[in-house]
Amino acid sequence: MRTGRTTTTASAPDVLARVREIVGAENVLVDADKVEPYAQDAVKEKFPPEAVVLPQTAEEIAAIMRLANERLFPVTARGGGVGYSGGAVPVDGGIVIGTDRMNQIREINVNDSYVVTEPGVTTYALQQAVEEHGLFYPPDPASYKNSYIGGNIAENAGGMRSAKYGVTKHYVLGLEVVTPTGEIMRTGGRVSKNVVGFDLTGLICGSEGMLGIITEATLKLLPLPEATRTVRATFKTMTEACACVPRFNRARVVPVAIEVLDRNSIRAVETEYAFGLDADAGALLLVAVDGHVAEVERAAQIVEQVVREGGGYDVLRAATREDEEKLWDVRRALSPAIKRFGTMKFNEDVVVPRSRVPELIERVEEIGREFDTFVVNFGHAGDGNIHVNFMCDRDDRDAMQRARAAVRATFAIAVALGGTISGEHGIGYVKAPYIDMALDAATIAAMKRIKHALDPNGILNPGKMFV
After folding, report:
1. Percent of the chain with pLDDT over 90
2. Which CATH number does the domain housing residue 210 bear?
3. Amino acid 339: pLDDT
4. Same domain membership, residue 279 and residue 311
5. pLDDT, average across residues 127-146
């Protein structure tokens, strides 16, 4: 699909010769088998680039972007390639800039509680590194062992801990960014208060690689919690389970994570793994708390009391970290368990006010029946972000069409309930046809003007978000 203004092939011999001069010949991949891994993300739809370039410095990326504007070929930046919206996929071909080699943590500052990192460091590696210093980086996307920090910032990644700690943008203090036209700019800084000029850090965070390529990030850290505890409970209905969420606030407990699984989720994991769950249950709730040891024990007891009073049964409260891991095994087993229901998974991440989650899931189940499509709902009840998964066989054209119709109907329901079409995954090219369901024409027009102002030639990550 050709969507941008770009006109020149990036594989032209003179273009590749100049790129090799910039980064070294060994860091330019053109063979089909070597560029193929960079052609897709978790959506599994392939758009092979003409070349993959693996720079190591901001200066190298800036030189590539200046060349791209001179010769008018598209460039797509890529982190770990684990997204669900096609944001890092080169739909217009051209060059992919992979940040694989930009994988160093440059500074961990204990006194001022920040870390300076290159974009190719995985979320997990960064978390492990700062925890050795008694510090804590809260954002925890499900793909944290494979996702890169640069991609997390570009997508404003969330995760299970967002119920208490928020999402990636709440921890980004400053950035080094290569603009679409090849300048290197610094935004923000290393302090938590900074109102000098426009908030360009906030603009880049969540911009899906369309407004600049992140080459360095300064991230805020917190003290590492002393302990965590988890409570798991089963409920007859989703309404009962989700009604517990506001009760935690009234009990003055702020869980670090509140995960909910619906009836089909429970049946899927129980059929596949036999955890001993009630196969007739309507919902399962996992609630984690963290903090000082005494505080955590008290909070876990309160959580247990709240879920029991709310109709929870088969309630388990972990006493050790090993027990906690066992309770969370059900949640981890979910994605592999639902694969048996289809070779294609439409994994959507709608979000609604958390009080509307039961209604959302009820309506989505109706949509599944209407379009004769198996649906599994699970996700972050603490912030209303539910992962709606429509399952079908990739080779069944009719089933694929029904699933796509179910996706559109689900987006409409989420918006009608006061929510929106994506809480974590972003828009990319996958959700681009639906963006006007969530944003009005004036808002979309303003975004397009910002994009054109920073990227007048449409070089960087074309074919995304706007159609």
Report:
1. 92
2. 3.30.465.10
3. 86
4. yes
5. 96
Q: Is the residue at 213 inside a domain?
A: yes
The last residue of a domain, from among 223, 250, 265: 223
* Percent share of the chain, pLDDT over 70: 98
> Chain-centre distance of CA 303, in angstroms?
28
Give the three-class secondary structure for 227: strand
Phi-psi domain of 320 (left: phi exceeds 0; alpha: psi -120 through 50; beta: other): beta
Same domain, 304 and 408: no
Q: What is the pLDDT of residue 465?
A: 95
Nearest-CA neighbor of 374 among 411, 403, 334, 335?
A: 403
Question: Which among 11, 47, 44 is positioned nearest to 29, based on CA atoms?
Answer: 11
What predicted TM-score, i.e. pTM, was given to this entire model?
0.94
Residue 464 CB burial class (10 angstroms; 0-12, 13-18, ≥19):
buried
Q: What is the mean pLDDT of residues 127-154?
A: 96
Burial 32-60 (b: 16+ CB within 10 A, else e): eeebeebbbbbbeeebebbbbbbbbbbeb
Quickly tell me which residue has 């006109």 as its tokens. Answer: 7
